[in-house]
Amino acid sequence: MLSKIQKITLGTKEWADSNVNCYLGCSNNCRYCYAKKMAIRFNRRTEDTWRIMIPNQKNIKKGYAKRKGRVMFPSSHDITYESLEGCIIVLEKLLNAGNDVLITTKPRLKCIKKICRLFFKKKELIQFRFTITSLSNELLKFWEPFAPLFEERINALKFAFNKGYMTSVSIEPFLDEDPFTLVETLYPYITESIWIGKMNYVFTKNIKSKFINFYNHIEKINSKENLLRIVKRAKNYDESIIRIKDSIHNFLNKNNI
Ligand code: SF4
Question: How do strand 71-73 and strand 54-55 relate by DSSP bridges?
Answer without folding.
Answer: unpaired
